[in-house]
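Assemble and predict.
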Amino acid sequence: MRTILAITRKEFEQYFASPIAYVVVALFLLLSGIFFFIYLQFYLQNAAMSAQMGGENSELSQSIMRPFLSNVSFFFLIIFPMLTMKLFAEEKKMGTYELLMTSPITTTQLVLGKYFGAVALMAVILLLLAVYPSILVIFGSPDIGPILTGFLGLFLLGAAFLSIGVFCSSVTENQIVAAVLGFVFFIIFWIINFVTRSEEWYGKLAQYVSIYQRFEDFTKGVLNLNDAFFYLSFIFFGLFATGIVLQSQRWKS
Amino acid sequence: MIEAIHLTKVYDQTPALTDVSFTVEKGEILGFLGPNGAGKTTTMRILTGFFPPTSGTAKVAGFDVLEQSLEVRRRIGYMPENPPLYNDMTVSSFLRFIARVKGVPKAKEKERTDYAVQRCALESVRGRLIGHLSRGYRQRVGLAQALIHDPEVLILDEPTIGLDPTQIIEIRQLIKGLAGEHTVILSSHILPEVEQTCGRVVIINKGKIIAVDTPERLSISLRGANIYSITVKRSSESLVAALKSIPGAVEIRPQDGGVYIIESDKETDIREQISDTVVREQAGLLELRPVMFTLEDVFVQLTTAEEAPVQ
């Protein structure tokens, strides 16, 4: 456990030593800020209109946070290939991988350590993203429940996709290749999500495997054990595949 | 302490190592000598468990590198060639990370880090980023990370490559000081280094071991003859004739300045007869010494000759 944490801490600290993380995170927060602003504008216009009509204001978290989180979830995943690309690829390129592989650590410890490092960075990003709902809490009284489950959903969604990113980094020693591979997976998931609209059998299948569909439940404030289990098995699968790849590379070299 | 048994490594059908066997005793410094691409790094990577051999096996401290890789890795400190380091970490945070990864217990973490820092003279650069360090310091950080968990075995791949002469001497002294407490294998393609540092030398070329011995014995066993050089005050033809008549003397080669090179067959020591003869001829003996082959000669001969003269 101490070994895993040592690797996690190293990865986490190294994120802040390179400009990539700062740029990517800043870009993400900027984009999500624009989305937040737009939905806030919509809400205020509607509120002004319904006030004229004498109607009631709609609920804050349903009308702002839900569409906001839905949109954010899309490009939330785009940033991860850029954050996970270095995890194994850079070590292999720099030769520091040799240090790790000749240290008394298991492949499991190595993969988990690196994965948790990326998850820790994602947690920081979510913490920064929480600035937007905090604005609603300070200036209004939104329903907190769906916001919290929405963030939990975002965390699980991100954690699932991070395991894919870790995998992509393990198969190559070129960071760009790792990132591009991550984007390919991102596009595949995006297409799967698109297919879910179909009424055909493949639409049903897509609904079953889509990582975005599961997320929608969370934004509604629904906590579904099935969904959580889906994400956790997804993570397990991604990390397991990474472990297999690393082990086979050792034996093939 | 270390036992390599018929190690063979094949990369994409190209053999990098063919049937390499050797042993290293506890506390010994073994030198791996060979030109670039001879298989030194490959051997070290097998011993450290970085990759498995194609066939054969090795034991470190009684543990099999294949079956008990973790146990082996716990007992080995490895410094790869041009030690790969995290340039964006400071020396102390890097060493702390390595200590944890190598399983140094929490209570001993500070003590071991301090020890490695002090032993490798890194006090002045503790807080500096590794990427900003000079080559000599990087090398020392590489050595410090190998030492940090107090391993029984140290494996050092080209520890002095790219250093300036003062730094080379420092590192060599450091390594020598580590013998005894640790068993050391170091590789080098620089001969005087191995000659000065190591108790025993393995000469390796094209993936094969071509000689294993102490540096002194290697140079002795190489020459087919004993060779002596004498310097006399007064050269004369009769001296040459008299020297030639010594039983066992094979060849006399007069040189400039009263110097004669005398070759005798390998088994007989004719130094006494030489001095007697020179005195009898009243030539005025100024110097009599055996001509030593340096390891360099051995090396060149072993690695260039098709048939190595060493049995």
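The CA atoms of residues 243 and 277 of chain B lie 7 Å apart.
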